[in-house]
Write a structure and sequence with these properties.
Blueprint lengths: L1 E10 L2 E8 L4 E5 L7 H11 L28 E9 L11 E10 L6 E7 L2 E3 L1 H10 L9 E2 L1 H9 L2 H12 L2 H120 L1 H88 L3 H73 L3 H51 L2 H12 L5 E4 L4 E3 L4 H8 L6 E3 L2 H14 L6 E3 L10 H6 L5 E2 L4 E3 L4 H8 L3 E3 L2 H7 L5 E3 L4 E2 L5 E2 L16 H45 L1 H73 L2 H87 L5 H57 L11 H18 L5 H63 L4 E6 L10 E6 L6 E2 L5 H18 L4 E5 L7 H14 L4 E5 L3 H6 L2 E6 L7 E4 L3 H18 L1
Parallel strand pairs: 3-23, 3-24, 8-22, 11-12, 15-16, 22-23
Antiparallel strand pairs: 1-2, 1-4, 4-5, 5-6, 6-7, 9-11, 10-14, 13-15, 16-17, 17-18, 19-20, 20-21, 24-25
């Protein structure tokens, strides 16, 4: 790969378009100062380094645009292209030539500009440029481009900045980013660990408190369970009692029901007698009726029958009318269909008649032609014996030929149908496939439009909703942490305030004992070893026993515990020397323990315990604490103390002290002035203060995060409202498009199912076509063979027949062939028409059958309507007549009615007796109902109690105690519950919740600790790898530097060194050189030319470590003498065998060694021009002019 050309248009001093061709190897660019030769390297850097820290020599980017020279105005744009030969595909672009173009255009205001990038004239981006160049190992920030100031900059830069060059080429920047990222994650993990630690501490306190509440709750629930068992047993006992009552009432009901049955039997006998009287009354009534006549009853029956008949006929008529309307619609549809089919049949029959007529004409002409052929054949046969035999053979062949022709027509028809069916199936398949592709395209297009509208409309409501839900989740978690941290802060604050108060008390108490303070100060300053502290400091006490134990210890709380008697002696000497006072010391090696006295042992059961057992301290101090407390007993109150006093030391919970001698000490105690165990030391107070500060910081941090999350939620909500109000049209369009996509997908699903059926049709049609083609081919082959045979016979007959007969028979046969074709074609068309006519006929037959059925139904309906209309009229007339007769027949009689009345009076007597019996039954029934009511109540009570028993979910203990015993149990458990007072039943659940939360946080703590260790390991690993990678590049560059410097200096020595080899990243890079015949010096101490040569050696060493396809050197030999300039040029010449070198130089030796020479001039017009392969002698004077100007400047 190499740079083939630099194409410039309006770039700096190059006006218009200019192409600078470049070749492989070593190319030198020269020209007088100010000619614009370095602008060629600027053009290369302009394209290669849009983000490079190396600046193109211009104040601002628009200064690169050609200013118009002396005769033109400023150009509107500049454009530079680098054309690379990419046949080796080093640059990942599939083209032999890659053109990278950068285009800068001025805006209309002449100040602003637009910048564009192109790859092979295709619009590109800066990132694509970077990617292509990086993969080709070309970088404007590296040493592909060595500008005039780069050599000087290496000389002038400090050691650390010089070391960073090795950092950059070793590629360790990613390690720095990863290490920094890991360091940030570690800091965040530690912050989280501190915050969670505070929450864990608070939750631990809550869990301890809830554990105690849980015990009360469990006791409450236990009593509640026993109460529930007693109540369940009580329910069972009540059920047994109610069931006993129910059985007793049931017995009474049974007796009363027997009495009622007896009364009902007597009543039934009376009712029999009454029934006999009623029969006599009925007989009398029949006699009365007979006087009137049977016609009356018959008339009544006829009237009812007439009504029923009239309603039946009306229903039949209405049903027939509804069916008639429906059948009429069917009739119209069938008649229309038959008419259409008949019209089509008429047209087809007319076409058939035309074809039949033509067929008859063709057959008549065929018959005449055959007769003519026969006559000619007979004439030919008369000419000789062979002709006769040939004629017979021809007739046989003609017969076979006709049969085969008929078969061919049949197979041809089959083939035509198969081809049509196949074509239709394939067309349907193609159409459906096109339709599916169209649907797919429309779906893709709609989805693309949706995406475009989404981009225009911004995030969707669903996206906003998800963002808000996520933010709300974080807000909820932070609120929980805030609550827990706030509780922790308040608890630690209270603890801190308490410790401060205790410290003040302790300080007041100790203020009088400068000696104790002095001894503790020795300990704190580390000036005397072996001092443990005061008894007060070395123990802690449960708050409930604080007063009692402080009183029991008394002044001995200020005794100081030391390792041994030597420490005690040294401390006493110090107190004497300083005249500070006296202190009691307790040397652990000399302190004696003891045992409780007999009286104390006997009384301990009535106390809270020995004081020494109620205090918490390290067991190595046991003898010291025995000295302080001995066998002192702690009791609840003064009454208890008085009961057991005498011979033992006792202290009450309230702080009253009773000595073994019987002396009693008591009264008011000021908690503020009392010494307390575990009183706040400076360290403990500082530790608690630090915990309080961390809790405050953690709380403030969580509140800050909570504010940020809430601001984020409000921001998302505002953004959602803005987007919702501003993108309504897009959302409506999106909704329409989504609906369109849904419809299209449904259509596609349906079309896909249809495609399966069409594929099967295509397969079946292709199979039938293949079969028809095979059959047609077989018949065609047979017909071809017969044709060949027939032609052979005819040809032979023609050969031996006279010429005029040959011509005649050939003409006749040709005519016969044409007629056969026409007849065959006509038959096919007639057959097709017949098939269509038959099809329409069958269709009409079916339609006619349905039409006939409908017509019959219509006729039946019409007949039914007519018949029932007439019958209804007659039924109405008959009904009216019957009602008139009924009115006339009614009349009255008197004698028979009197007889009937007497019978009725007798019946009334019987009725009276029946009523009396009924009253007895009723009274008994009332009593029965009362018992039944009790029974119902008892039954309901039993049912209720059974349901209560069934509802009991616990297993009831048996046997069930008596009712009174159960009541006592209930009262006892209710009393126990009352004594427990207010119980936090939620404590069991809260304990589980808090414990689970605590366990989860502890797991999180473990996870964070693991994560911190992993991050530490990662940072250590990354640092190690970073150093390894750095040292690898450093050593390689150092070796290159040594050899290159030796080459350029003609035998000198040089090497690189690190200021801190253990950790190279905290020190700089030193460069040391020893010119030939000189001494080893730091770079900074070398002469000007030696500095430049050494810096160039360093640059060449870097280039050799990271080889690139081409390099650009811009006047790097400016400060070298001629000898060193030649050495550099020879080095470049040598390296150009591996890479392309483009060097801007005025040095004659450089120009002479270059493979290719390019000259740059700038005539008076102000526009730079390029001269390819200028005369070396001509351009050599540029060096002399430059040297002359340098001397004049000096």
């Amino acid at each position: 790969m190499h740079l083939k050309a630099v194409e410039m248009e309006n770039f700096k001093s190059f006006g218009g378009k200019l192409v600078v061709p470049l070749m492989e190897g070593y190319t030198a660019v020269t020209g007088p100062n100010g000619s614009g030769k370095s602008n060629i390297t600027d053009a290369i850097l302009f394209v290669l380094g849009p983000k490079s820290s190396k600046a193109v020599r211009a104040g601002k980017l628009t200064d690169l645009i050609f200013d118009g020279g002396k005769s033109k105005g400023k150009a509107p744009f500049t454009k530079v292209s680098l054309v690379f030969d990419n046949t080796d595909r080093i640059m990942p672009w599939d083209d032999d030539t890659v053109r990278l173009t950068r285009f800068v255009k001025l805006s209309d205001n002449g100040t602003d500009y637009s910048s564009y990038f192109y790859v092979n004239d295709r619009k590109s981006t800066m990132s694509e440029f970077d990617s292509l160049l990086t993969k080709a190992r070309i970088s404007a920030d590296g040493y592909n481009m060595v500008q005039q100031g780069d050599v000087t900059r290496i000389v002038q830069m400090g050691g650390i900045e010089r070391r960073r060059i090795i950092d950059a080429i070793s590629g360790i920047a990613s390690f720095d980013a990863d290490i920094e990222k890991a360091r940030g994650e570690r800091a965040e993990a530690e912050t989280n660990l501190d915050r969670i630690g505070i929450i864990v501490e608070e939750l631990s306190h809550q869990v301890d408190r809830l554990a105690r509440d849980r015990e009360d709750a469990r006791a409450y629930l236990d009593a509640q369970a026993r109460l529930e068992m007693a109540k369940a047993q009580y329910t069972h006992r009540r059920l047994q009692i109610e069931q006993s009552k129910y059985r007793s009432v049931s017995d009474q009901i049974e007796k009363l029901e027997g009495r009622i049955d007896s009364d009902r039997a007597a009543k039934a006998e009376l009712e029999v007698q009454r029934s006999a009287k009623e029969q006599e009354i009925s007989a009398k009534e029949e006699e009365i009726a007979s006087k009137i006549g049977p016609e009356y009853r018959e008339l009544k029956e006829k009237i009812e029958a007439a009504k029923v008949d009239l309603a039946t006929k009306k229903d039949r008529k209405e049903a027939a009318e509804m069916d008639l309307e429906e059948q009429s619609g069917f009739r119209t549809n069938f008649e229309d269909s038959i008419a259409r089919n008949n019209a089509m049949v008429v047209t087809l029959r007319q076409n058939r008649e035309d074809l039949v007529s033509k067929q008859a004409e063709d057959e008549s002409r065929m018959e005449a032609a055959r007769r003519e052929e026969s006559e000619i054949s007979e004439a030919i046969a008369d000419t000789g014996g062979e002709q006769k035999e040939l004629q017979k053979e021809l007739e046989r062949v003609e017969t076979d030929f006709d049969a085969c022709s008929a078969e061919l027509r049949s197979t041809q028809g089959r083939l035509a149908k198969a081809e049509a069916a196949s074509e239709e199936a394939h067309t349907a398949f193609a159409n459906l496939d096109d339709r599916l592709q169209t649907i797919d395209f429309e779906i893709k297009d709609a989805k693309w439009s949706i995406e475009q509208l989404k981009a225009e409309a911004g995030p969707s409501t669903e996206d906003f909703g998800n963002r808000i839900l996520e933010a709300k989740r974080r807000e909820s978690e932070l609120e929980k942490q805030e609550s827990e941290l706030d509780a922790a802060y308040r608890r630690i604050d209270a603890e801190y305030n308490s410790l401060q108060a205790e410290k003040k008390v302790s300080e007041r108490m100790n203020r009088g004992s400068a000696a104790v303070e002095a001894i503790l100060a020795l300990r704190n300053r580390g000036e005397m070893k072996g001092i443990h502290g005061t008894i007060q400091e070395l123990a802690t006490v449960d708050k409930g026993f604080e007063t009692a134990l402080s009183v029991a210890a008394g002044g001995k709380m200020q005794a100081v515990v030391v390792d041994n008697d030597q420490v005690a002696a040294d401390a006493i000497s110090y107190l004497k020397k300083e005249k500070l006072g006296r202190v009691t010391f307790l040397p652990l090696t000399k302190m004696m323990g003891g045992k409780p006295r007999a009286k104390a042992i006997m009384s301990v059961k009535d106390s809270e315990g020995y004081a020494i057992d109620l205090i918490d301290f390290d067991q190595k101090y046991y003898n010291a604490f025995w000295y302080v407390l001995g066998d002192t007993l702690v009791v609840r109150d003064m009454d208890t103390a008085r009961r057991i006093m005498g011979g033992i030391r006792i202290v009450t919970m309230g702080g009253e002290l009773i000595e073994a001698s019987g002396a009693m000490v008591g009264g008011n105690i000021s908690q503020q002035s009392m010494l307390k165990f575990g009183a706040a030391s400076e360290d403990k107070l500082a530790e608690t203060g630090e915990r309080l500060r961390k809790a405050a910081d953690a709380l403030e941090d969580v509140r800050r995060k909570l504010r940020e999350v809430r601001d984020e939620i409000r921001g998302i909500d505002d953004e959602m409202r803005k987007v919702s109000s501003g993108a309504m049209e897009q959302r409506e369009q999106m909704a329409q498009l989504k609906g369109r996509v849904t419809e299209l997908e449904k259509t596609r699903s349906s079309a896909s199912a249809e495609m399966k059926a069409v594929r099967q049709r295509v397969s079946d049609a292709d199979a039938e076509l293949e079969s028809a083609r095979t059959a047609f081919g077989d018949v065609s082959e047979r017909l071809s063979a017969l044709t060949e045979t027939r032609t052979g016979i005819k040809n032979r007959m023609a050969e031996i027949a006279p010429v005029d007969l040959q011509n005649r028979i050939q003409a006749v046969r040709d005519h016969i062939y044409k007629l056969k074709e026409e007849i065959s074609d006509n038959k096919l068309q007639i057959g097709g028409i017949d098939t269509e006519i038959a099809g329409y006929g069958k269709q009409n037959e079916s339609l006619q059958m349905q039409l006939d059925s409908v017509i019959r139904a219509i006729e039946d309906d019409q007949r039914t309507i007519e018949e029932n209309t007439a019958l209804m009229q007659r039924a109405r007339i008959d009904l009216d007549a019957l009602r008139s007769i009924e009115a006339e027949m009614e009349g009255g009689i008197e004698d028979l009615r009197n007889q009937k009345d007497a019978l009725v009076a007798e019946k009334y007597r019987l009725d009276s007796e029946i009523r009396e019996k009924s009253k007895d039954i009723e009274n008994t029934a009332a009593t029965l109902e009362s018992f039944k009511a009790q029974s119902i109540q008892l039954e309901a009570s039993v049912a209720q109690l059974k349901s209560e028993v069934d509802a009991i979910e616990i297993e009831v203990e048996l046997p069930i105690p008596s009712e009174e015993e159960i009541r006592r149990t209930i009262r006892a458990q209710e009393s126990a519950i009352a004594k427990l007072g207010n119980v936090n039943l939620r404590s069991i659940e809260e304990y589980d919740e808090k414990k689970a939360r605590l366990d989860g946080l502890n797991a999180e703590v473990e996870s964070l600790n693991r994560h911190i260790k992993e991050l530490d390991d990662l940072m250590s690993s990354l640092t190690s790898k970073k150093k390894g990678l750095f040292m690898q590049s450093y050593n390689a560059v150092n070796e290159n530097f040594k050899s290159i410097y030796a080459q350029l200096s003609g035998g000198g020595e040089a090497y690189m060194g690190l200021e801190n080899e253990d950790d190279p990243f905290i020190g700089g890079l030193m460069i040391n050189a020893k010119p030939r015949n000189g001494k080893m010096l730091r770079l900074e101490a070398l002469s000007g030319g030696e500095k430049s040569l050494t810096a160039l050696s360093f640059i060449f060493a870097i280039q050799e470590h990271q080889p690139s396809p081409f390099y650009v050197l811009d006047e790097v030999d400016m400060f070298l003498d001629s000898i060193n300039a030649e050495m550099v040029a020879r080095r470049v010449k040598e390296s150009s065998a591996k890479a392309q070198f483009i060097q801007v130089s005025l040095r004659k030796v450089t120009l002479a060694l270059a493979d290719h020479l390019i000259g740059v001039t700038r005539p008076p017009s102000g526009i730079s021009r390029v001269i390819m392969q200028p005369d070396l002698a001509e351009v050599s004077r540029y060096e002399e002019e430059a040297l002359k100007r340098q001397k004049e400047a000096i």
